[in-house]
Amino acid sequence: MHMFKKYWRPAVKSAIGGFVISLFVSSRMVTLTIVDGKSMSPTINEKSVYSYVLVEKLTPIANLKKNDIVLSHDPEEHNKFIVKRIKALEGQFVDFDAENPSGEYVEKYSYQGKLSVPRGNCWVEGDNKCLSVDSRKFGPIPLGFIIGRVFLIRNDWSLKLL
Q1: What is the set of active-site residues?
Q2: What is the pTM of this model?
Q3: Which residues, 6+ apart, have CB-to-CB distance to 133 below 8 Å?
């Protein structure tokens, strides 16, 4: 019993402390996420089925910029997540042409090939327009859906710092 107290008790306390710290960091600061699918190719998953991304949760929503890649709740399936690029923020316009084909939402709500993003929302799209289900289909997403900004991508054996 003496051996247990001397060696195991501190080890168990350290393990529990490490778990609590990692849980705090993951829920409040940074999280590692696996991205599958080709909707963000070539930026993410260019040559593989899935990639790992690090998402930082410290940037205030108000500081997000156009072209940031973000992790967000999926507006169609709330228990799932999506990784997309911000194309426009509230008050900005999204243009649609041959390079940026429209989807169901765009066809219904755009006027002369343009659409204004409402207050408190942003417009997200995948880099691979042919394979991406994004705001062109489901419309702008509330800024409150955004979990964080992707800052590191691991594709195959390479790392990209954004």
Answers
A1: 39, 84
A2: 0.80
A3: 39, 76, 126
